[in-house]
Amino acid sequence: KYVQDVLREQLSETVYKYLREEGGHIYVCGDVTMAGDVLKTVQQIFKLHGNMSLEDAGFYISKLR
């Protein structure tokens, strides 16, 4: 399994809660491709748990950077 698979399958609610509600941070170390895949997964998590469009989720995440 890849990092993004674990985030999506096992930790999506936790990721959303800590990033959106608790003001948490996420740091991704690795190659650019993997980091991009993780970012897309976090965007999908925000779409799902935040009841927002994929575009709005991407915009919200861009403000966290």
UniProtKB/TrEMBL annotation:
Among PANTHER family, the record links this protein to: NITRIC OXIDE SYNTHASE, NITRIC OXIDE SYNTHASE OXYGENASE
Catalysis: reaction(s):
2 L-arginine + 3 NADPH + 4 O2 + H(+) = 2 L-citrulline + 2 nitric oxide + 3 NADP(+) + 4 H2O
Report which superkingdom the organism of origin falls in. Answer: Eukaryota
MF (Gene Ontology): calmodulin binding; metal ion binding; nitric-oxide synthase activity
Q: What class of enzyme is it?
A: oxidoreductase
Protein family per UniProt? Belongs to the NOS family.
Alphabetized SUPFAM superfamilies for the sequence: Ferredoxin reductase-like, C-terminal NADP-linked domain
Q: What is this protein called?
A: nitric-oxide synthase (NADPH)
Cofactor list: (6R)-L-erythro-5,6,7,8-tetrahydrobiopterin; FMN; heme b
Keyword field: Calmodulin-binding, FAD, Flavoprotein, FMN, Heme, Iron, Metal-binding, NADP, Oxidoreductase
Supply the source organism for this entry.
Cirrhinus mrigala
Which Enzyme Commission number(s) are on file for it?
Answer: 1.14.13.39
